[in-house]
Design a protein that fits this description.
Structural class: mainly alpha
Strand content: under 5%
Order of helices and strands: HHHHHHHHHHHHHHH
Shape: globular
Number of strands: 0
Distance between the termini: 38 Å
Helix content: over 70%
Oligomer: single chain
Radius of gyration: 20 Å
Amino acid sequence: LAEIYRGQGLYSKAEPLYLRALAISEKALGVEHLDTARSLNELALLYSDQGLYSKAETLHTRALMIEEKALGLDHPNTALNLNNLGEIYRLQGNYQKAQDFHERALVIRVKTLGVEHQSVANSLHNLGLLYAQQGSFSKAETTMQRALEINEKVLGVEHPYTASSLNNLANLYSRQGLYSKAEPLFLRALAINEKALGPVHPDTATSLNNLAALYREQGLYSKAEPIVKRALAIREKALGPEHPLTAISLNNLAGLYREQGLYSKAEPMYLRSLAIEEKALGAEHPDTATSLNNLA
């Protein structure tokens, strides 16, 4: 039930259920049981979704200690926890610490699962994002291309994870202004998601948002607008009108109007986005701050 609430962005409903599950595991199985570690990780992911990174870090660290003791330093589950902590540090801008954790997770996964496992691709994906955030675009490109190659070989050229790898690489090119390299990758990712997941799936909406952002950056507002509107409609239907991802789509559409000087159309969307984020994420979440800046 908690997972259902989390998926809808209903974090305040999900949290007490995760806390109760954790308390039951600790009492019935013990504070160092693997099921307790799983409960800790699930609660940590909920906090991470809300930008509560210090709370998430504490829980992931505790789960990591349990799994290192129970499973060993080189177990795939240990690598998963290292990966989770690496993402927490990356999101906080602690890039060196994030790199240490992601690289350790990658070494474990290569050793235990092989060089062409999807989990290895996941580690490469996260390292690629980390390199890109530090401006190491060449290193990021090589790493993301390797992740894409693994997913294409292991999962197939039409798998949603392959689409995710394409999106990541396209975003890297877009960030560098290499729009002609980014567009075909975004289009291919969109086609995969539409075929594999359906035209109204949240991941399809993410692909649409990425493509619209590419057009918006080039000033192609008439191409971007219907795509953003379609992404918003999907998220409202699939995730609900008060989900944080719905707020992102509202922000994107409002930004599109603002850049064209259509302030009367932009303002109500910014206000609605802000209201969603304050309710779902809290007044001090980075996305809430972004909405406040946009409205100002």
